[in-house]
Amino acid sequence: MSERSESRAGLLELDDLSVTYRIASGEVPAVRGVSLTLDSGAALGVAGESGSGKSTLAMALLRLLPRDARVGGRILLDGEDVLTMKWGRMRAVRWAEASIVFQGAQHGLNPVRKIGDQVAEPLLVHGQARPEAARKRVAELLDQVGLPTWRARSYPHELSGGQRQRVMIAMALACSPRLIIADEPTTALDVMVQAQVLTLIKDLVAENGISLIMISHDLSVLADVCDRLAVMYAGRIVEQGPSGEVFHDAKHPYSKALAAAFPTVGDPAARLAPKGLGGDPPDPMQLPTGCSFHPRCPVALDECATLDVELWPAGERRTAACVHVRAKEEAS
Ligand SMILES: Nc1ncnc2c1ncn2[C@@H]1O[C@H](COP(=O)(O)OP(=O)(O)OP(=O)(O)O)[C@@H](O)[C@H]1O
Q1: Domains plus CATH for the chain?
Q2: Strand arrangement, sheet containing 211-216
Q3: ABC transporter domain spans which residues (predicted)?
Q4: CB 285 near ligand 1, within 6 Å
């Protein structure tokens, strides 16, 4: 365990979190009974294929989901339940205590406003600085993310994709939050720039003692940046544990396939179909019976078609939801 993850405990706790979208043809169970803890100062990676519920989980944390989403369970941020917070408090929490960096910064920035004004906005809105002090802080922030301070006068279209993502990171850092949620922050970038932005995120959260939840389909990226990993499949966590152990010695057959798909950081070819895994992730409206992964699982037993095993202890601070893991642990 890293030094950072040994610091103060329990900044964020999810307890049986579920999110269901109501659409015309029925209900989409996008997140199903997710429980996890993020220690203060630690970095947690959430991995899974497209449609596994990662972004829904991220959006739920700051109540950014659309109105058709029904959310159950508890999200405790420093002991305070996000789901029952009054809206005024929720607005105060966003940016100041927890901020989010999305994939594809071009959508997150206003094309007709200068970079400096956009980075200053969270500071001004949250009353953390007056205009003159905000300008100074913007210069500091741009410097921190490796951009020259004159970039404050640029417009988003004058920057590269990587530079725009650095601006989004500067905005996320502006109010010195305790938690940053980064949802596929480097997916839209080419491999070289991706590596630079990942290093930047890793260094900034470590230097500033910020907790991080990073979401990606790429297990190698997460293993590089995060202390712990949670692997999601069809809205559930199927494995959790220290990054190195999950990446190099996965217990769940799905995590194994995901790790094998991304032997090195940022292999875009593996994005949608992990190698060695046939078929597609299930439609959440028509989940298979038993273990949701069993139709694609190379080691499925007959009982997997009816039995949905809970997360089972699989070593120190490790869990996996698989009948084989359970059998092994029961035998030992
Ligand atoms: N607004 C919505 N209304 C209905 N269904 C939705 C909505 N948003 C997401 N979904 C569905 O919820 C499930 C989880 O989607 P989500 O975007 O959270 O997955 P993801 O793992 O982040 O995928 P990706 O990596 O492609 O973003 C998917 O089946 C998706 O189609």
Answers
A1: 4-97+178-331 (3.40.50.300), 106-176 (no CATH)
A2: 98-101, 179-183, 211-216, 43-47, 228-233, 236-242, 319-320, 312-313
A3: 12-259
A4: no
